[in-house]
Write a structure and sequence with these properties.
It is built from 5 helices and 2 strands. The chain is mostly helical. A hairpin with a 6-residue loop joins strand 1 and strand 2. The chain has 2 domains: 43 residues, no CATH class; 46 residues, no CATH class.
Length: 119
């Protein structure tokens, strides 16, 4: 049974994760990158990448002034707005709605405007 904790003042119920989550540190990141690079089984390698978000060792590891992952905090774009850019592009190019009645050309960019942007 999942148990939640209720905050008394705002009646919000918080359900803590039952999974034990370790905070990733520099050495763990380096070791995982090496393990992934050395893995020969493609399915296992893909699974490791999916589970950790690490695809291998970075060239930035050569810089001793950087500590992975502490030197790269999550920015607001990746924390909140992930996948917003493709949706906005679809809106601005008139490809977001499947029903043409929902389209509004007020915010759609013309082909020449896209070309001036470089797309």
């Amino acid at each position: 049974m999942i148990k939640g904790t209720c905050h008394p003042s705002n009646k919000h119920i918080y359900y803590p994760s039952s999974a034990f989550c370790n905070i990733r540190n520099h050495d763990d990141t380096i070791n995982m990158g090496k393990l992934i690079e050395e893995e020969t089984n493609k399915d296992r390698k893909d699974e490791m990448i999916r589970e950790t978000g690490i695809k291998g060792s970075s060239e930035l590891l050569k810089l001793q002034t950087l500590l992975f992952p502490w030197s790269f905090p999550t920015d607001i774009m990746h924390l909140f707005f992930e996948n917003v850019a493709p949706s906005m592009y679809a809106h601005w190019s008139g490809k977001f709605f499947y029903n043409n009645l929902l389209l509004s050309s007020d915010y759609e960019l013309s082909k020449s405007q896209w070309e001036s942007i470089g797309i």
